[in-house]
Amino acid sequence: MGLFDRLRGSDAARVAFVGIDGVPYSLIRDEPETFPNLHDVIDEGTGGPIDSIVPPESSACWPSLTTGVNPGETGVYGFQDREVGSYETYVPMGRDVQATRVWDRVTDAGRDATVLNVPVTFPPQRNVQRMVSGFLSPGVDKGAHPEDVSSYLDSIGYRIDANAKLGHKADKTEFIDNAHETLDARQEAFLHYVEEDDWDLFFGVFMATDRVNHFLFKDYEEGGEYEREFLEFYEKVDEYIGELRDALADDVTLVVASDHGFTSEDYEVHLNQWLEDEGWLSYEDDDHDSLEDIHDDTKAYSFIPGRFYVNLEDREPRGSVPEHEYEDVRSELREKLLSLEGPEGRQVVDRVVDGDRVFDGAHDEIAPDLVAIPNHGFDLKAGFSGSEDVFTHGPRNGMHSFENATLVTDDPDVEVPGNTDLYDIAPTLLDQLDVQYDARDFDGDSLVQADD
Questions:
Q1: Directed axis angle between helix 36-44 and helix 227-247, to 10°?
Q2: CA–CA separation, 320 vs 179, rounded Å?
Q3: Pairing of strands 46-50, 405-409
Q4: Reduced to 3 states, what is the DSSP secondary structure of residue 58?
Q5: Does CATH place domain 267-395 in 3.30.70?
Q6: In this structure, how many other beta carbons lie within 10 angstroms of the beta carbon of residue 87?
Q7: CATH architecture, domain defined by 13-264+400-441
Q8: pTM listed for this prediction
Q9: What is the C-alpha R_g of the chain?
Q10: In the chain, where are the structural domains located?
Q11: Which SUPFAM superfamilies does its entry note (predicted)?
Q12: pLDDT digits over 265-298, tens only?
């Protein structure tokens, strides 16, 4: 706790949230020797698997986790979104998140928050006492508030993210070392500001977990070359969570959560190439690399992960599908996706979700028409440059999963039922903080059980 808090003797409820991006609950459950500290937290409170969101992609997940609402309200659907009424695309940043963050609600209630390394928070907000932007931030110098924070972070070798490009090498040693260095500096910063700041909500995210999973998860699941290094990395993650917990005052509630699960990857599936092969997508010429290059007769196109858009007349600039044909075209595409088979005859897509069933809000005008949720092993890609084959092998051996995200807390008043998802986390944190809110503002429900 901060010095000022110790002096004032505040008894206001406080919460420390630690994000572990992409960590599946089954990993924690099945490896108690690797995660003794998290098992202690579960024994004191509760823990369990939760669902992610549609689509289970970090750029969409963290805005939804931190606001408690779906992408139709946050306005962020993935790593790449398109402009309304245009084929121009952009990478959503913090200012593109249109819903109210949980730390804004805390600040509006006259309380203080320290927010470190949360994805999709660049540029850092000035209404929060301290914020260091996470994934998608161009660097520490521009991603830290107040300005003097960057000097401290530079002094400890802090970096926004691990270098994922190192994971593309056959020898993963340099990548693993880089992931450890990133994790070490993140922990040093977390411990520093847990003690330095007078906060009511501490919100920090470890992102390197997602990076390690992308390149080593199959090694873990199938006893591969880097299984030991994978578990050693997670032994450190658990050790660091234990250190953070020890640094917290006794009256602080700890919450640990991930934004999606993880599983082994067998194939990259290039869906725009598949659409092209099936006659649904074509380009103006052979030199194409963006959505703007599609031909007028295109019927549908895809963004990662598994988002499909009908090229609808009067909605897209050069829409080819009339409104009266929309439902038939969407239905046909849905059936084609469900019948798509991989090289060994396995079904690629587990289910296809209609966009208007899962996206609802003031910013649903750029929502996808369909979202494909893949079976394990099939990582759904997009891109507009073309691919020699629909099914390829990339440098990654791990991929996101919709199910099996993590929620752990030492709060004995919390229950994690089987239908829990990311939308439940924000109202739960507010209840734990005793911050008042209107339940109608959220797509989820608080998991704090009311006293009888």
A1: 50
A2: 46
A3: antiparallel
A4: helix
A5: no
A6: 16
A7: 3-Layer(aba) Sandwich (3.40)
A8: 0.95
A9: 22
A10: 13-264+400-441, 267-395
A11: Alkaline phosphatase-like (SSF53649)
A12: 999 999 999 999 999 999 999 999 999 999 999 9
